[in-house]
Design goal:
The complex is a heterodimer of chains A (139) and B (893). In chain A, the strands form two sheets. A four-stranded antiparallel beta sheet of chain A has the order 1-8-3-6. In chain A, helix 1 (3-11) packs across helix 2 and helix 4 (110-119) crosses helix 5. Chain A is globular, with a radius of gyration of 15 Å. Chain A is of the alpha+beta class and 139 residues long. Chain A contains five helices and eight strands. Chain A starts with a helix and ends with a helix. Chain B has four domains: 5-342, ABC transporter type 1, transmembrane domain (ABC transporter transmembrane region fold), CATH 1.20.1560; 368-454 and 798-892, P-loop containing nucleotide triphosphate hydrolases (Rossmann fold), CATH 3.40.50; 540-584 and 730-785, no CATH class; 598-726, no CATH class. The chains are: A alpha+beta (139), B alpha+beta (893). Chains A and B meet through helix 1, helix 2, strand 1 and helix 4 of A and helix 21 and helix 22 of B.
């Protein structure tokens, strides 16, 4: 799998769909491809957010702590984009994501992500739209 | 110091000056004789005076001196015929030239040595004074200005010292001799020469008054410039972050402009004076030629006499000029001297006795610290302390609390004399702090301020700095006899800089190894162990100097390998294998299978070595690497196009820096794909390929085919390099320590894999486990202590510098430890952890620690709260409580 496959994967994310391919390639290049063994955490609830992850291969569980112990609220797989809220708002992770199988993910660092937002208004607009939609969905 | 330069010179170089004068005097008769000879040669053997009859002879070498018109004969001479006489006189002339030359050489040598000695003395005295400046004075001076004065401004004074007394005598003697000679030859011509000289020596000094004024101005401006340059270097981060580089440029341009115009005016005036001087000097020969020629034609003056007068006059302007120059130099040096020493005599200098070596060991401090009605002000007159009285036990743990800048810091500084006490008394274990020597404070008290300085050298050197009070053990290397003689001649102290100055006893140790062990034991107290451990892992070890450590590292490599191969940890590190391409290493590393030691075998230089290029071509690797480099360049330009050059992505991610970008763009435009290119251009592309790390960059440009070729090239290259450039590359060898790689890289013997979650952290844990098991941690820490701190400790973080300062103080086992905001850059949690450990370690030994808050639970025995320079509250927590009101009353008294 090479950089171009990662660019293709990024293109499939709604957030990045409007961005020109060259910039996506830069984003992919500036990011790191990381593999996690089953059981390893991509991140844990309550940790400071330092990166967002795009799942390229494998399946992961999204787990939230409740009064009754951990609850798996969702299962995510290929092309899932997680952890972007924590790096946008500087809030701790709202959930844990743990690899259920071996996972390969693209790790997009916070500084890289924010730098791209600063450079590309189209991406910032897309983020705003996404956030607005989520807000709409909750009200 | 003497206000007058001449008094200073005379005081310190009297004997040498007299010796020089004696030699000069001895040289004068020979000089006179050499002036007389040319006339003699022309008149007698050449023109034939005294050889009119055939076979006539003349006495050779009659020694006689003119004495009030009479010739006093000393030696009648040897009779010689005309030709022999000519030869004898010519040989005599040559001999005199040699003798004069040897005299001159001797005189110059003596002068040079004298000048250098006095310069050494002057510089030493200036620096000695800097070491004794009152502390407050350092807030007003800029370090580069002091450096500029000690180094540059006194330099011309040194040049002048040699000439100070000798030159006016020598040149004056020459001038008087020449003048006397002319007077003897012809009274009126001599009188004219004397008159012209009188005009010169009256007019020229007058014209030089403004030159001296300008010189003084130039000196001040140059000193100021040095200060500003120093400020720019020191303040570079603030200049960059405030975008004031152009403001600084403007200021520098203004200053350089001022200096330019001062110097230009100086030159104009100088050259005018020079012109006038030359003109006046040439007027005299004009008179000689015109008047002397007239007299010779009239027969009133012999041609030989005229030639001799003109020859003698030729000798005259040089000494006169030297005299006039000397006078200028004298005034210049005097001004410079005054301006320099003015800056080195601040009020309140520390007396030399306070810093002198103590005669006996300083006994431990015991008892109490008592302050009575202490007051202090800073150099702006603001009140730091007022009517402060306290009485604390020296072996107790005391907190100086209160808001910042309201007295707690000043009180702590007063204890180590960093703040001068203006009123009241401060008694430390029975000694008045104002009167005790630096030795007591420096050896028995440990002080950690917020701005403790880290000197150039290793971390260890800096921690040991607090133990270097006096030479303890002489080393084989010491001052030579010649060094010692010069030390005495220039009044420098004879402390042996080569001796071992470390006071092992003070650190409860006997050898350097013991001290290192003590430092390592102290590291956790200052929370510095992790940092030093990391320094150690990153350090390069010389396997020849420390073979045990290198052997242990190999053992650790051996022990770590099974764990890295362990499937549970699988793929954390990709080991170096001579038979495999390492996808986590650069292509260059893969090609060389080692690290370049010789800078000629790095990056773009590599393919420019003809044999290497040929080898790559032979293996059909050259063109694929150029193509790969080209692809990288194209991709980088595609990715980074449109980003401003200062965009952070360039530095973090690009193969090509922002400044190289246009160059590669031009290269791509100029050379169409697949075209033949010159070796230089090809090397530029290959340089990019060499930086490529497959697992990290994921551009997919290195195919399996290329990898196999690289492995083949690796073998061939290694054979070629071993034969033709031994030592240029440190090759990887599973059984050998690699001196070019860090300790950590040597142990891992591979590259940490990209793309494995938490690989760095997990490898770190595995590594430290292995090192612990093998008992290697100590050795790594010792290697870490040798980490170079950089200029002013700039390679360290501020927190690391403060920890070094704390260790420096702890290592000397002080009777009193004063920590005055000494860990201020650390966060509160880290500070309080270190505080707890330090107090636990120093139970029964005195500690004074400045803290922000007085309320809450304190680990201290005694708390003093400072507000507005006074003690606002006092609490004894462990040793018999004192009522708060009582304390308050005391401060009111």
């Amino acid at each position: 799998m090479s950089l171009n496959d990662e660019v293709e994967a990024l293109k499939r994310i709604k957030l990045f769909s409007a961005i020109e391919p060259a910039k996506l390639k830069l984003l992919a290049f500036a990011s790191e491809r990381i593999s996690f063994e089953a059981g390893q955490s991509l991140f844990r609830e309550g940790d400071p957010g330092d990166a967002a992850y795009l799942v390229l291969e494998g399946v992961a569980d999204v787990v939230v702590q409740s009064s009754k112990g951990p609850i798996t609220v969702a299962e995510i797989g290929r092309d899932a984009f997680v952890g972007e809220i924590a790096i946008l708002c500087d809030v701790p992770r709202t959930a844990s994501v743990t690899a259920a199988s071996r996972i390969v993910a693209l790790r997009i660092r916070k500084d890289v992500f924010l730098q791209l937002l600063r450079d590309m208004t189209s991406m910032a607009l897309e983020i705003m739209r996404e956030l607005a939609e989520r807000l709409e969905a909750t009200t | 110091m003497d206000q007058n330069l001449f008094s200073y010179i005379w005081r310190h170089s009297r004997r040498e000056q007299i010796a020089v004068i004696a030699v000069v005097l001895a040289s004068l008769p020979f000089y006179y004789a050499s002036l007389n000879l040319p006339a003699l040669i022309v008149n007698m053997p050449i023109q034939g005076h005294g050889f009119e009859s055939p076979g006539a002879s003349q006495p050779f070498f009659p020694l006689s001196l003119p004495w009030f018109g009479e010739e006093v004969v000393i030696f009648p001479g040897i009779p010689l015929d005309r030709l022999s006489f000519l030869i004898a006189l010519s040989v005599l002339f040559l001999t005199l030239v040699c003798i004069n030359g040897i005299f001159k050489f001797q005189i110059n040598t003596m002068k040079g040595r004298m000048g250098e000695r006095l310069l050494r003395r002057l510089r030493y005295e200036l620096l000695d004074r800097v070491l004794r400046f009152p502390i407050g004075h350092f807030r007003r001076v800029r370090p580069p200005e002091i450096a500029s004065m000690v180094k540059d401004e006194v330099e011309p004074i040194g040049g002048f010292i040699g000439d100070a007394i000798e030159l006016p005598l020598f040149a004056g003697g020459q001038a008087v001799t020449a003048l006397l000679f002319i007077l003897v030859q012809n009274f009126w011509l001599g009188l004219i020469a004397a008159f012209m000289i009188a005009i010169q020596s009256l007019v020229i000094p007058l014209l030089r008054v403004p030159i001296l004024r300008l010189g003084r101005l130039r000196q001040l401006q140059a000193r100021d410039l040095a200060g500003r340059v120093g400020e720019i270097v020191e303040g570079i981060s603030d200049i960059r972050t405030n975008d004031t580089a152009n403001y600084e440029r403007a200021d520098i341009a203004r200053r350089l402009g001022q200096i330019f115009f001062i110097r230009f005016e100086l030159y104009q005036r100088k050259f005018f004076v020079k012109f006038l001087n030359n003109f006046l000097a040439q007027v005299t020969p004009f008179i000689f030629y015109a008047l002397g020629g007239y007299l010779a034609i009239k027969g009133q003056l012999s041609i030989g006499e005229l030639v001799a007068v003109i020859a003698a006059y030729k000798e005259l302007p040089a000494p006169i000029k030297e005299l006039i120059d000397w006078d200028l130099q004298r005034q210049d040096a005097q001004i410079k001297y005054e301006q320099v020493i003015d800056q080195f005599q601040p009020d309140g200098m520390v007396s030399a006795a306070i810093q002198s070596l103590p005669e006996a060991d300083i006994p431990p401090l015991k008892g109490r610290i008592t302050a009575s009605d202490l007051s202090a002000i800073d150099d702006s007159g603001a009140r730091l302390l007022e009517g402060v009285s306290f009485d604390i036990e020296l072996d107790s743990h005391v907190a100086f609390a209160g808001p910042p800048g309201q007295g707690k810091e000043a009180a702590a500084q007063a204890l180590v004399r960093l703040v001068a006490v203006r009123g009241g008394r401060l008694i430390l274990a029975g000694h008045d702090v104002a009167l005790i020597g630096d030795a007591v404070i420096g050896r028995r008290v440990g002080y950690v301020g917020h701005d403790t300085y880290v000197f150039t050298g290793s971390v260890k050197d800096n921690i040991l700095y607090g133990l270097k009070h006096e030479p303890r053990r002489p080393s084989a290397l010491s001052w030579s006899m010649r060094d010692r003689a010069e030390l005495a001649a220039s009044g420098n102290p004879s402390f042996d800089p080569f001796a071992d100055w470390i006071d092992y006893e003070a650190a409860s140790a006997a050898t350097i190894e013991d001290v290192e062990a003590r430092i390592i034991a102290l590291l956790p107290t200052a929370d510095f162990e992790d940092d030093v451990y990391q320094f150690g892992l990153r350090a390069r070890i010389d396997p020849i100097a420390t073979p045990e450590l290198a052997a242990l590292a190999l053992k650790a490599r051996e022990a770590l390998r099974p764990r890295l191969i362990d499937p549970a940890q699988g793929g954390l590190v990709e080991p170096f294998d001579v038979e495999a391409y390492n996808r986590n290493a650069t292509l260059e590393e893969n090609l060389l299978f080692g690290l370049p030691v010789d800078p000629n075998y790095v990056g773009a230089s590599l393919p420019q070595i003809q044999q290497i290029a040929n080898l790559l071509k032979e293996l059909d690797l050259f063109n694929p690497l150029v193509a790969a480099g080209r692809e990288i360049a194209e991709t980088m330009i595609e990715l980074f196009r449109g980003l401003p050059p200062d965009h952070p992505f360039f530095e973090q991610f690009s193969f090509i820096s922002a400044t190289e970008m246009p160059e590669y763009q031009a290269l791509l435009n100029r050379i169409p794909a697949g075209a033949v290119m010159g070796p230089q251009d090809a090397a530029r592309f290959i340089a990019l390929s060499l930086r490529y790390v497959d697992a990290r960059h994921r551009l997919g440009i290195i195919t399996e085919e290329i990898r196999i070729k690289i492995l083949a090239a690796r073998r061939r290259l290694q054979a070629w390099l071993k034969e033709n450039a031994p030592g240029a590359i440190a090759f990887y060898d599973p059984a050998q320590f690699n001196a070019a790689a860090s300790l950590q890289d040597n142990i891992l013997f591979g590259r940490v894999a990209y793309g494995v979650a938490d690989a760095q952290k997990r490898v770190g844990h595995l590594l430290s486990d292995v090192l612990d098991e093998l008992g290697l941690k100590d050795a790594v820490l010792r290697a870490g202590l040798r980490f170079d701190a950089g200029a002013a400790g700039r390679r360290l973080l501020p927190g690391q510098r403060q920890k070094i300062a704390l260790l420096r103080a702890l290592l000397k086992n002080p009777d009193l430890l004063v920590v005055n905001q000494g860990l201020a850059v650390l966060d509160a949690g880290a500070q309080s952890e270190i505080l707890t450990r330090v107090l636990a370690m120093r139970s029964g030994q005195g500690v004074i620690w400045t803290v922000a808050r007085a309320e809450g639970e304190h680990p201290f025995d005694h708390v003093l709260v400072f507000e507005q320079g006074r003690i606002a509250d006092e609490r004894r927590l462990r040793r018999g409580p004192v009522k708060t009101s009582e304390a308050k009353e005391r401060t009111l008294i």
